Structure formats: structure tokens, C-alpha cells
Amino acid sequence: MQKLSSVLIVVACLGIGIASPAASQEIAPAFKADIETLLEVTGSANIATQMATAVSSQLIDAFKAQQPGMPDRAAAIIKDVLATEFSTWAHAADGLQAKTVASYARHFTHDEIRGLITFYRSDLGRKAIAEMPALMAEGMAIGQAWSQANMPRIMGVVQGRLRAEGLIK
Question: I want to staple 56 with a disulfide (CB 3.0 to 4.6 A). Which of 67, 72, 82, 100 is the partner?
């Protein structure tokens, strides 16, 4: 049993190393710089700020729901703390920016990144960037509407199948 546990631990450790070989590989400085340029051109480099804004708004709304008389100063403190924490995380050596760069390096070649930069600097690319938030919002609304309209029926089908197989009563 002890030997089997040791073998499983070794296999798990090897699996972790195999699962993300690019994570430990160094990204060439020029490739990294071009990925960072792409993130700037597309506005993706500001994702930490956007996340902080979204999370702080949700957190403030939750606090206000629990404590309707929450002072504006408390909301300001929440926004400040979250903005600082997200910014620190985004720019840390192993933070959001570094992980995003590594992710792009795994999925795109250097030439592809250069092509994307060229595209997003074009009129059509700038339009794609400008329209993306509206497209995402519309897509989310479509998905939510579909889910609200269909989830009761789908849950009925799931429950029927589970009952048919004796997995629920």
C-alpha cells in the first residue's frame, strides 16, 4: 500500500509537470513585449481595473443591502482597497499580467501575435474592440433569456432521467 501511494504521488507530480509544459518555459523578451503591446492595443491590459470596479460595485451593493445606511465613506474605502489589491495582483511577478502573457504565448505564435497587433490597430480592429462590450452584453442577455425560458423544462428532463434510473425518488 505504501509503495502504491508513492507511485501515485510520483505520477501526480509528473502529470502536473506535463499538463503545463509552457508554464515553466521562458518567453523570449521580444515575444513577451509584443504580447504586452497586444494587450495594451486591445485594452486587455486594463482588466484588473475593470475587475476591481465590477467586484467593488457588487460588494458595495451587497453591503448596502445588508446595511442600507452604509456611509459613502465605507463605499470609498471598499473601492480603494479592491483597486489596490487588484492592481498589486495584476502587476506581481506571478500575477494576472504575467499569467495572461504566458497564456497568449501558449496559444499563439509570435507571428500570429504580430498579425493580431496589426489587425487591432486597423480601422476594423479598432471597431471590433469598440463593439466587443456591446456584443458581449447582448450575448449574455441572449444566454440569460434562453436559460430562464428553458431551465425549468431542462430540469424536468434531468429529474425524469434520474428517476428513471433510480438515482432520485
Answer: 82
